[in-house]
């Protein structure tokens, strides 16, 4: 499957990047070397895939805004499939999702997952179509971000690559498998409670509330009151 990009908007120590690599590829079905570290705007996306041991480096994206990273990704991943030297072809990079390690990443083992969402044809045919188009009539996309654990980074990235619209719907609904906790972290409870994917994980987050079951329980409660 495609390769994902990593940016550091803080000076992240090599051992933190190594921990990210270890944790994000811990699930049994994860890719072996799924990430490319982008070190500076001038250097661009040159690869190769990030592997251990990670050597110390100075990030030239320090304090870069989310918008700066998002524009860089869209401008530097060529859609020209006829150009074998383009980063997208050479490294099979997926342009709609990437990972950001920031100052908080060095303290709590979390990172920021960026996802670019463009309305599907079904969305365009909805009654809100006019709001989802620019003046020229083209669908408008938007970037979304969530803070996720290193452990869940690849699984969430992979989920959006495989089934973007369904994944987005599930994440936004705060479901049994995906929910944002009190610390603002998008938890991947489905992954953490999968003993086949993570047989040696010692502490597992609880499942989140299932909206469907919750609605049924509320309806049953109202019926009992009547």
Provide a descriptive summary of the structure in words.
It is built from 9 helices and 7 strands. By secondary structure, the chain is an alpha/beta fold. Strands 2-1-3-4-5-7-6 form a 7-stranded mixed sheet, sandwiched between helices. A hairpin with a 4-residue loop joins strand 6 and strand 7. Helix 1 crosses helix 6 and helix 6 packs across helix 7. The chain is globular and about 45 Å long. The model has no long low-confidence stretch (mean pLDDT about 85).
Unreliable residue runs? none
- What structural class results from the helix and strand content? alpha/beta
How many DSSP E strands? Answer: 7
The major sheet is characterized as: 7 strands, mixed
Strand-residue proportion:
15-25%
From the alpha-carbon coordinates, what is the Rg to the nearest angstrom?
Answer: 19 Å
Q: What is the global morphology? A: globular
Mean pLDDT over all positions: 85
Strand order of the largest sheet: 2-1-3-4-5-7-6
Please provide the ordered H/E string of secondary-structure elements. Answer: EHEHHEHEHEHHEEHH
Fraction of residues in helix: 25-40%
Distance between the termini: 54 Å
Count of helical stretches: 9
């Amino acid at each position: 499957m495609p390769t994902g990009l990593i940016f550091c908007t803080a000076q992240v120590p090599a051992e933190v990047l190594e921990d990210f690599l270890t944790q994000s590829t811990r699930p049994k079905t994860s890719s072996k070397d799924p990430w490319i570290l982008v070190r500076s705007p001038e250097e661009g996306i040159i690869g190769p895939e990030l592997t251990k041991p990670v050597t110390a480096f100075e990030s030239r994206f320090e304090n870069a805004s989310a918008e700066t990273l998002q524009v860089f990704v869209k401008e530097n991943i060529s859609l020209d499939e006829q150009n074998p030297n383009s980063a997208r072809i050479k490294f099979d990079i997926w342009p709609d999702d990437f990972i950001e390690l920031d100052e908080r990443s060095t303290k709590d083992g979390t990172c920021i997952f960026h996802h670019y969402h463009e309305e599907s044809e079904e969305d365009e045919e909805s009654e809100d179509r006019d709001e989802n188009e620019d003046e020229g009539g083209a669908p408008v996309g938007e970037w979304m971000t969530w803070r996720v654990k290193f452990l869940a980074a690849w699984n969430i990235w992979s989920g959006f690559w495989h089934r973007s619209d369904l994944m987005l719907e599930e994440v936004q609904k705060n479901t049994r498998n995906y929910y944002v906790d009190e610390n603002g972290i998008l938890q991947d409870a489905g992954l953490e409670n999968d003993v086949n994917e993570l047989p040696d994980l010692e502490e597992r987050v609880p499942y989140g509330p299932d909206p469907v079951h919750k609605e049924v329980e509320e309806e049953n409660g109202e019926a009992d009151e009547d």
